[in-house]
Specification:
The chain is mostly helical. It has one domain. About 85% of the residues lie in helices and about 0% in strands. It is built from ten helices and no strands. The protein is globular and about 60 Å long. It starts with a helix and ends with a helix. The relative contact order is 0.14.
Length: about 220
């Protein structure tokens, strides 16, 4: 058990790491290689437009992608080959997500809520606002997933899909040496730009998915 002073120190370190991640997020976009950015676009488009219909499969994909990140960090901590950690993490979390898809939807619904909260105040220069809004959104997203499952699935797949598409496009554009610095500096100078680029297609995707599902339900009703 950690003592009070050690707990406070751990919390301070966690806050500093999170605040640094918020401040340097635009610069991190420029670190994506073209081969990492390319698959994000088709995955994001499928999630954005057909996430509600294919939500079980999309949750598995999300979990596998999260497993890549977790596996990479675990491999670095354990001083193992990064490829082993990334593949292992993707396989383990991907396999767990299928039978536990409702739990996974709750988790990713919370993540999507956290992203939305952070996006709404991302233009603020103080990272604390982003962290607080993201934390509130995380809790709200998790709770809503327990009561309005379908609505959360539409929201989650639309927002995460839009984010993946934007990350993929920015990653491909910044892979061009001559435009890399201009794009990253532009995003850093206009902190509202990234939330708008993600939010606009997310809203369109949510409307499209909802409308598409309503039309399919009407067709099934007529057949009956």
């Amino acid at each position: 058990m950690l003592g009070p002073s050690e707990q406070q120190s751990a919390l301070e370190e966690a806050y500093k790491a999170a605040a640094e991640a918020v401040e340097t997020f635009p610069a991190l976009l420029g670190q994506l290689e073209w081969w990492q950015a390319t698959p994000l676009i088709p995955v994001g488009l499928v999630s954005l437009l057909y996430g509600l219909k294919l939500f079980k499969g999309m949750v598995v994909v999300y979990a596998a992608m999260a497993g890549v990140l977790v596996g990479r960090m675990a491999a670095a901590w354990l001083e193992l080959n990064p490829a082993v950690g990334m593949i292992g993490g993707a396989v383990v979390l991907g396999l767990l997500a299928w039978p536990l898809f409702k739990v996974a939807v709750t988790v990713f619904g919370g993540i999507a809520g956290g992203l939305l909260g952070a996006m709404l105040v991302f233009w603020k220069e103080e990272p604390v606002y982003v962290l607080i809004a993201g934390g509130i959104g995380l809790v709200v997203g998790c709770v809503l997933a327990l009561f309005v499952f379908r609505a959360v699935v539409v929201f989650m797949t639309s927002l995460i899909g839009a984010l993946l598409v934007v990350l993929g496009v920015v990653g491909l554009v910044t892979a061009v040496p001559n435009v890399h610095d201009a794009v990253i500096s532009g995003i850093e100078a206009r902190r509202y730009l990234l939330p708008v680029l993600v939010g606009a297609p997310a809203v369109i995707g949510a409307i499209y998915q909802s409308h598409r599902m309503e039309m399919e339900e009407k067709k099934r009703g007529r057949k009956k």
